[in-house]
Design goal:
There is one protein chain. By secondary structure, this protein is of the alpha+beta class. It contains five helices and six strands. The chain folds into two domains: 32 residues; 74 residues, Alpha-Beta Plaits. Helix content is 50%, strand content 25%. It is extended, with a radius of gyration of 20 Å.
Amino acid sequence: MAAFLDKSLSKELDILRKSILKDTPQKIKCIEDKEPINEESVLVTYSLPGKSRSKKMLFNYELVGRNGNDGLLQRLGGKKVTSGCAIVPADKEEEIDIFLKRHEVEFSKQRILLLEN
């Protein structure tokens, strides 16, 4: 039975590998053709463990805005990527740090260059 599982898994991995690699030359070419934006950015990941639902909502309203009002990200020229992840211009890094520390949020940052807006 174990041999059957190993062969089956091996076939699935081969299919997955071929699927991933199939378009790789085109993806690489696409990336090579794009010039990075001249603005360095910071990828910020954050989490809100132990925060009440209302505290999480208030945090998000202040971060991304509500009812047509801009949030901090819009004022800084940043963007929310997904839940718990945002991108801000590197020159606005200190402002996002202050905001996250004020809300006592766990976060990490990484400097990045974007290929396009």
